[in-house]
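Suppose you are handed a protein chain with no further information: no name, no annotation, nothing but its sequence. What can you learn? This example shows the usual starting point.
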Amino acid sequence: MFSNFLVLLLAAAAPSAYANVFATSPTAATVWNAGQAVTIAWQDDGNAPNLAAFGPCSIGLFAGSVQQQTLLQEIADNVDVSQVSSVPFTPQASVGPSGAYYFIRFTSNSLKDATQPQFPQQSFTAKFMLNGMTGIFNQTVQAEVDGSSVPVGAPPATSNTPPASTPPASTSSSNSASSASKASSTPSGSAAANAKNGAGRVAASGVLGFAGVAAIALSLFV
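A reasonable first move is to predict its three-dimensional structure. Written in structure tokens, the prediction is:
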């Protein structure tokens, strides 16, 4: 009886919509070097909405946590993911330190989140490693990274509400400082991450609320 109740409860709380940009590069096993050209690649993950609905989007390099994320480097601002399946990317060494702190975020320019329509639809790669970096995170970004409840290999989720934070410190070009100046945060009850064969996909609904519901359900039967 308990198991049936719990299954029904979890099913009711589970995300109902998924971001559809399934990143095939980078993955959780990726190690890229600063200053070297690489390729970000993706495909449709088979979930609604399709890539045509996701449409043109911005792509950026981010660091942070489930609750708050900071844009470190702009990669593209109007790429139609249904028309192309990859973009070139050269990591800037000055945007942060070496380590597995980084992920790529896709943010639709027009499609809204199915469960939180005040926010755009988004998708994330797995966290991956950048080597040869020369920058440091400022106190705000470092706190976001340290506070992450998402392990390496599972990307966090976010919305488009900017936090009161400053960009990560840059040690070189003004372009790096400019690209690191945009930040965004996620309200409590944002999405959960999912990695499949090292590639990144994210649910567009409230996993923090989902976990809380599960915990309450379990406590009722202890």
